[in-house]
Automatic annotation (TrEMBL), chains A, B, C, D:
Gene3D superfamilies linked: Histone deacetylase domain
UniProt cross-references to InterPro entries, sorted A to Z: HDACs, His_deacetylse_dom, His_deacetylse_dom_sf, Ureohydrolase_dom_sf
Annotated organism of origin: Arthrobacter hankyongi
Pfam families xrefs: Hist_deacetyl
Histone deacetylase domain ranges (all copies): 47-320
Protein name: Class II histone deacetylase
Family membership noted in the UniProt record: Belongs to the histone deacetylase family.
Alphabetized SUPFAM superfamilies for the sequence: Arginase/deacetylase
Lineage per the UniProt record: Bacteria, Bacillati, Actinomycetota, Actinomycetes, Micrococcales
Amino acid sequence: MTTGWIWHEAFNWHNTGNGSGFFPPGGFIQPYEAFDSPATKGRFAALVEVSGFDKQMKRLDATEVTDEEILRVHTADYLRRLKALDPTGGDAGENADFGPQGLRIARLAAGAVANAVRGVLSGEVSNAYALVRPAGHHAEPDRGRGYCILANTSIAARIAQEDFGIKRIAIVDWDVHHGNGTQKIFWEDPNVLTVSLHQDRLYPVDSGFREETGGPGAEGSVLNVPLPAGTGDGGYVRAVEHVVIPALQRFEPELIIVGSGMDAAVTDPLGRMMVTSDGFRRMSRLVIQAAAELSGGRLVFAHEGGYSAHYVPFCGMAVLEELTGVKSAVDDPYLVFFQNYPQRFIEPWQEEAIQQAALLARRVPVPVA
Amino acid sequence: MTTGWIWHEAFNWHNTGNGSGFFPPGGFIQPYEAFDSPATKGRFAALVEVSGFDKQMKRLDATEVTDEEILRVHTADYLRRLKALDPTGGDAGENADFGPQGLRIARLAAGAVANAVRGVLSGEVSNAYALVRPAGHHAEPDRGRGYCILANTSIAARIAQEDFGIKRIAIVDWDVHHGNGTQKIFWEDPNVLTVSLHQDRLYPVDSGFREETGGPGAEGSVLNVPLPAGTGDGGYVRAVEHVVIPALQRFEPELIIVGSGMDAAVTDPLGRMMVTSDGFRRMSRLVIQAAAELSGGRLVFAHEGGYSAHYVPFCGMAVLEELTGVKSAVDDPYLVFFQNYPQRFIEPWQEEAIQQAALLARRVPVPVA
Amino acid sequence: MTTGWIWHEAFNWHNTGNGSGFFPPGGFIQPYEAFDSPATKGRFAALVEVSGFDKQMKRLDATEVTDEEILRVHTADYLRRLKALDPTGGDAGENADFGPQGLRIARLAAGAVANAVRGVLSGEVSNAYALVRPAGHHAEPDRGRGYCILANTSIAARIAQEDFGIKRIAIVDWDVHHGNGTQKIFWEDPNVLTVSLHQDRLYPVDSGFREETGGPGAEGSVLNVPLPAGTGDGGYVRAVEHVVIPALQRFEPELIIVGSGMDAAVTDPLGRMMVTSDGFRRMSRLVIQAAAELSGGRLVFAHEGGYSAHYVPFCGMAVLEELTGVKSAVDDPYLVFFQNYPQRFIEPWQEEAIQQAALLARRVPVPVA
Amino acid sequence: MTTGWIWHEAFNWHNTGNGSGFFPPGGFIQPYEAFDSPATKGRFAALVEVSGFDKQMKRLDATEVTDEEILRVHTADYLRRLKALDPTGGDAGENADFGPQGLRIARLAAGAVANAVRGVLSGEVSNAYALVRPAGHHAEPDRGRGYCILANTSIAARIAQEDFGIKRIAIVDWDVHHGNGTQKIFWEDPNVLTVSLHQDRLYPVDSGFREETGGPGAEGSVLNVPLPAGTGDGGYVRAVEHVVIPALQRFEPELIIVGSGMDAAVTDPLGRMMVTSDGFRRMSRLVIQAAAELSGGRLVFAHEGGYSAHYVPFCGMAVLEELTGVKSAVDDPYLVFFQNYPQRFIEPWQEEAIQQAALLARRVPVPVA
Ligand SMILES: [Zn+2]
Ligand SMILES: [Zn+2]
Ligand SMILES: [Zn+2]
Ligand SMILES: [Zn+2]
């Protein structure tokens, strides 16, 4: 059993512009860094190398997605606009800046997820983790949004469908923000189940409701699990157990892609959740088991957001240990503190939100014989 | 009416050691910055100057607290240890590092709060804001804790009692962490009411419970309001209205000191709360009104924690606008996003926690005739 | 005797764009900081405050220069372009970026130098130091150049001439780069002597030659002293003694302005000179003596470039000590190393360059009776 | 023909302590970064990857040097002290700090150079570049000095001698500082020629003189080429042509190791030299040609210092292009500016210093039949 691993140094070079938080500095906004700084992902990649854990995995290449691949998900007009912006950089839509010649980096990020999927489907690796920047799940067919330029995971899913003949795909997105782009792209596709666990009304503030369940002909193939701010390991693990896994069991996907955002982490500046490395570990374990039972083990983790440069590396290592089945030399030094937080247990109001979502999981479409 | 304002550039120089998050870098902890970086407070001070708002206030000096003043709160042994550590710097206790010759900066921070109190009590200013670093509310009589070296606010309260003959003082601490040091120092002092609003069991994980109500002869003078993670403007404002203000009304303080932590802010990496600049504004307004009614307006804000370098400046400006009664030229650019979050309303489980604390507020001691 | 001191926090906010060295990041240029980062000047200002040396000086305000004042030096077209750029920021000419709403900061920098001149000419202070960012000496009438937007010092000189009736002004610029803008602005003005000590052909590479001596009617009023790379304290002090002072003695200025660049410092990344804090101290002392003898002590230091965030603070303190005549509590910790460098002595090839320039000093115009 | 390439992410993690320039921050030294920051080398490694140039080379592993290998150069007492310091980190001697558990990183750096030598001597690769941090050439048998912990290059040379039976080795060190450690280690070894081109009396200030020519039995095997501050491409290329190459031709080494410091670069903050990427390219080309003629092409570049995070990447790419014989996609964007500097030509005083050193080159020992 081999786990594929993809990271490209260019992801550290993705340039979110001259950003200070969400804004260009100027007036009364002092110059500073964007929330989406290289450290938030580069430090995870660095820990994998420094700990030697990359030797436990098979390194796959990131290559750029082609125009043709982009156009499987995005509009021709959007691609034209991206190319026109590329020489100077700019905003691809709504808070989705990239720097001069930065389109290449977005292509590499999408290509990394695509190659992770190719690696798993071709049998070159058993499963895979693609650590990419920029993220992709907010990108919509016709615009970038929320630090996302190209819909990395969606493009990869289309490649799985069209180039590998994979019929049913589940995308499980536990980034703390709603996976609005993925949902929109597959809204009417009954063969792609999109599940999003996210903080209720964080971003985008007007989507991600349980009432959104899929378009005509694809009813039930969209499943939103909004959770109240403050949910920790207890609530997240329960949500995976009681909503995600049952949904997967009904859907019987041939491939599972996890939108592996880490901004539900307990020190994330944008999310307000309290997931520790142990929580990410247990959530991953559950999905790995489900993949083993349902999709022949075919499982790809594609990194999404996560803005705690301090803690993402340790959450990431926990996930990689589960994917590989190998214990690394790294121990999460924060865990001794975070595991005492009361949020290791579930609260009643979290249970309530999960049970509501669990009802929806029962309406996920089953395969047609 | 004049508001005093204190900040010293040396607070930007406070050196929390070679810290990476909570830890010294080494092994599998990559070098990085401590959560308590200069930007988290220096950017607030900078915005005050760049916006010209310092001209709306009276600048007071920070001067170092003397040994004698320190010893009103801390043990002689602890002061000796601090002096011995000073040449090289080191940890003053539990995660309370300071750099070479850094004791001077801790003395200036405590001295800044003391001078703010002196300014208000002498009538030089009507109220005051002391923006200081390091913070103070975790420091205990015999050791530093949690980024705090000296108990800034407690020393200032002792000065108010002993040098100005102020009898009854209320310290209202809305830093997201429990004000364990302040509580400990005044545990048996019925003349100092210490109120702490904080995230339930965040830090220290084993204190800040409602059951802690004060020592022998001072029953009811300690009031803890633990709130569930995820509480936002709605819950915080309600907690001030239903717990803090009634407690103050019973206690009838002659001086109110606010432990003005801003780590309950919605983008703080350590707290998990969702307070916006509008929430801090409304909480401040309530306390200002209470001071006007109860303590002859005598009110000092002493900065505690707050680790969102992006957002603290805008929360801080809102508080200063309330203290001065003057609108600045600065608008919080984030507010348009954050005000759509559902946490502007209170949730039932937050209401429940507040009502429990409200019961305790009724046991706060009233003045003895 | 009082020294005026000007610094404004907004100078730390000057935003040179999303710059990586001289370039916008993109392609094979990794995101990083511009050479002209806030730390290069902000750390000098910080040291002045932390050491308490600001109490030895009189703080003067920085106020924005008006359109009318700008137009005394710059073209109306250039001012129009600056205003048009202001909402988004952009390049004011050649490598002279500023951020959104950044024109205000450039106005404050020019206004700071103007106020320093006003303070000295009005007698409010004896002499003054204006620490400003952006710098000004490369800015030309119709465009920004080399990190300079407005010609700070030139505007101030025009104000001295026109508003205070000062007839003869000497501008002594020892920034390591050629003071091309200042030279151009006063090219035909026989009443302003512009002296530039700089590294031979560094920037602009095609100006700053000894052959440039002033325009029609102003022959000899421009004096360039190009020095070979590697010149240290020995050569610089000699150049001041043998060229600058004799030129000033001939010219008999009523006001001396020093273009106080610190990029001739021994650790500057852009200059290749080897001046230590002691060299800056001795150069300053010589000019202070000359001012005492020639211009009634009327002397203003206006900061120009200087890119060693580590060392500028200590060079700056040495200059301030000379201006005030007061020893600070700060010792340059680097001096023990740098004073052993052989460049504390002059080399023959440096002597040669100085002697060539000394010949020109003899042609500086004397006052007409 | 294949070039070996070694870089390890751990080199980015080397922790020079809580350093501000040369000093621990405290008192009047504001916290800041050490001159030897990760960016100074990590950005070179990053450019190699982002440009895809790593695919033109064969990646070799960095492995830790063993105690036994260290003891071939260093004293047992020094190794004991390093091990004792390792848990907390500390100063290995004189300005040679490392962080907790940092000895591993120093071992990896030395091991990287050793593996580069092994790769070349085994024929696995034709030549090699080891990009390492910390550097090594200042480390002496019994102590670290000047950012160097272990004598990377010297250990590798001993391995070449003892494990591969290489008799004669030349180490050509063009780091801007004197290679004092290397010189000391091989002072009495007539089979190792150590050549150091450096800025005259920069660091260490009391070594690197032409008069130092080797110990008893090894006269002429040490060759110092001190160059005056301000020397650029012209002088450096001439020094290689007129001193280094003739010395190599006399010595007839079987292996050449270049101490590839890049702090002679034109924007280095510590050096005062003016070498551009083109200068490093031409110097490398000359040594590559010499290796082809003299040592069967056996050539290893081991990175030493270099503190211009902006410019090192482009200097490094030029060297790699020469080693591989392949043009990369990267053009040095600074070159258009720097090539106009007058220092592309040699100055008479530089010529003089070179000619003095050339006389010494004639006394380099020739092989004994
Ligand atoms: Zn997210
Ligand atoms: Zn706190
Ligand atoms: Zn300059
Ligand atoms: Zn060096």
